[in-house]
Amino acid sequence: MAPTRRSARRPRAPRRTGARTTLRVPDDLAETVARYAEQHRTSTNDALIRLAYDGARRYDYRHTVEELAAGRRAALDRLEDQEIPPDAGDLTGEETARAILGFRLGLYDEETYGA
Amino acid sequence: MPDAWDTSIASRIAADERHASLLATHLREGIPVALPAPTVQEIVRGLRAPAADGARTRLKRRWFAGLFRHPLTIVVPFDRSAAELTGHLLARLPHPPTHNHRRHGTRAQQRAAWALDVQIAACAFAGGYGLLTENVHDFAVLRDAIAELLPEVPPLAVTDARA
Questions:
Q1: With the CA atoms of B33, B30, B2 and B75 taken in that order, what torsion angle do they form, in degrees rounded to the nearest 10?
Q2: What is the pLDDT of residues A14-37, one digit of tens each?
Q3: What ipTM was predicted for this assembly?
Q4: Do B88 and A112 touch (CB under 8 A)?
Q5: Which residue from A64, A70, A75 is facing B1, i.e. has the nearest CB?
Q6: DSSP letter for each residue of A18-85
Q7: What is the predicted pLDDT for the residue at A82?
Q8: Residue A76 has what pLDDT?
Q9: Which among A42, B17, B51, B73 is least buried, having the fewest CB atoms inside 10 angstroms?
């Protein structure tokens, strides 16, 4: 039996709910959309939506991570903003170096200082 | 919150390993694979170690090198914020928590591993990630220490990969 006309067509794109819109698709993007539609045997409208979902998922991921990172980094930066008493003395250069290099130089008790 | 994978996860994502399906899901669905920089360091170091078996190790190194360069892979940097946080944490917690269980390796190795875990937690936190791990007890200690240090921001979410 010869294939029906319907079976030769691309599968129908899934019906979606949401506001209808009209938009101008740039030529270079339209080429990509058409290639995607061909490869996935779907309509260009559906291809456009799938690619938009893909981009939206990437955007959401990046946005979530960046927003959280920004808040946490700002909190870290504020750690050193705490008030210092006006009469607090500063470490000498030698004391500073010994504090920082203490572990490498074996100046501290390993059990107390750790790694 | 997206999760970064610590070394207990990232070391077991190659084919037939117990977290291979996790990597497969990420690649199939286009979800980024976030690896803290110290985890990348541990993987390469482990596969370059003199004790490792030559040619077979090179193949696995190449596989991981491909993963590190994959467009979906994000190496979460050990940057200024992560470095500062690591300093704060190591000053508070110089030793790995005991949890009343025996740890592998010499005391020096345990401390080096702990320093790496602290760096991994700091990378994930400063990078805006949670952490997926099998080593949930140690990272829960770090999560709590970070929450104590920085109570005003969302804490490091630590997810048990074995659950």
A1: 30
A2: 888 999 889 999 999 999 999 999
A3: 0.80
A4: no
A5: A64
A6: S-----PPPHHHHHHHHHHHHHHT--HHHHHHHHHHHHHHHHHHHHHHHHHHHHHHHHHHHGGGS---
A7: 76
A8: 93
A9: B51
List pLDDT tens digits, range B36-50.
999 999 999 888 877
Which helix or strand (DSSP H or E) is residue A90 part of? none
**Domain boundaries in chain B?**
3-160
State whether B152 and A58 contact (CB < 8 Å). no
Residue A12 lies in a domain: no
Q: Which of A54, A65, A112 sits opposite B127 (nearest CB)?
A: A65
Just give the CATH number of B3-160.
3.40.50.1010
Neighbour-count burial of A65, counting CB atoms closer than 10 A to its CB (0-12 exposed, 13-18 middle, 19+ buried): buried
Pairing of strands B33-36, B73-76: parallel
Query: Would residue A63 count as lying in a domain?
Result: yes
In a domain? residue A33: yes
Domain boundaries, position A77: 24-81
In this structure, how many other beta carbons lie within 10 angstroms of the beta carbon of residue B147?
Answer: 15
